[in-house]
Every structure is written in structure tokens, then in C-alpha cells.
Amino acid sequence: MALAFPNTVRLGYQRSMTPQPAEQRRLQYREDTRRAILDAAEALLVEDGVDAFSMRRLADRCGCTAPTLYHYFRDKPGLIHELLEERMQQLVAELHAESPSDDPREQVCARCLSFARFGVRNPRHYELLALNRGPDAGDPPAGEEARRLLVGPLEALARRGGLGADDLETLRLGLWSLLHGYILLRATHPDEAWSEAVLRHALDALLEATLGAAEAAG
Length: 218
Fold this sequence. Notes:
Blueprint: H1 22-48, H2 55-62, H3 66-72, H4 76-97, H5 104-121, H6 123-130, H7 141-161, H8 165-188, H9 196-217
């Protein structure tokens, strides 16, 4: 099913009622076309998943040629990078909004829960984010910012709790395992009576165990 793009070529800009200079019209056309491609790519991704996604299928969906796609996006990884950047900007905004207190432990829990909500709402994008997309793919800029917002309170908690580098890394991996498992289970077993309280209890238990062990050892 093709999307209903404006103009006869379907990948175009909606003609304004107000006359515009040629250069402004050209820039608007490029931006509208780029936006239409990204929207179509996201729709395909949500409908059919990561494995079924291809530039050829995207061209068919848009009603354009493959060279048109490659004119706007260097390749499939470049297109995926753009999609992830947009979604990760949303995650960054949500993580910034999670500041319940100055207590780093509460910040760790709040931001972990916010990240889990993002993954549950955007399972296809999370799947892309979690995939090994190759050594040259890298995270989008917003992804690096999201990582900083998640790790910052964790490092502050480690300093306050007297955790060494090894304990901090163990805690980081433990939290990642919890979040990853929770998001994937919610996506693959939606019939189960999942509650956010399940994740919160698991986070509390992991933090308590790790910090308690460090305190006992110290």
C-alpha cells in the first residue's frame, strides 16, 4: 500500500498558496521529500520489522526510484541513523524530565524506568538500537546524550556507595540486562500481565544487593 504523497510524483511538496522565491521552493521541496521518505521508512519498519526492511521496498512504498532515495540518504545505514536520531531526541527529552530528587539512586531508577517506557513504546526502534549494526555505524548524537544521562547518576551512586570500577561495571551490565529483558519480554509476550512494578522491584533488588555487598566489603 503506497502512501498518499502530494504532487503527481507522490514524493513532493505541497504547493503553497503564497508565491515563494525559487530557492525557497527548492529547499522546501527537498525537506518535504526527505520527511516523506523518513515517514515511509518508519511506517515500513513498524509494520514489517527490521529484517524485512530494505531500500527497494522503501522505494516501492514511496512510489519513487532507488536513485531518489540515495540522493537524500547515502545508504540504508545512513537512513537508519537518521530515524534513530529522531527517536533518540525524544528519549533525551524524557530523560531530562526525570529528576525526582537529588538522590542518585532515585535518579538511576527513574531514568531506567523512563528508558524502559521508551523501549516498550518503540519496540522496532529499540530493536534497531540494540542490534549490532557494524563497527562503523556508531550511535546517533542523541544516543550518546541518552547514554550520558543514564550513566551519570549511576556513576554518582557508585561514588556515594563506595563502588569500585569492577562493581560499577557489574551494576551497569546488570541494569542493562534487566532493561533489555523487560523491553523484549513486553514486546514478545504482550499477553502476560506485565506491570512496571515488576521492573521497579528488580531494579531495587539489584541496587540493594550491589550496594550492600560493597558496604559489607568496605
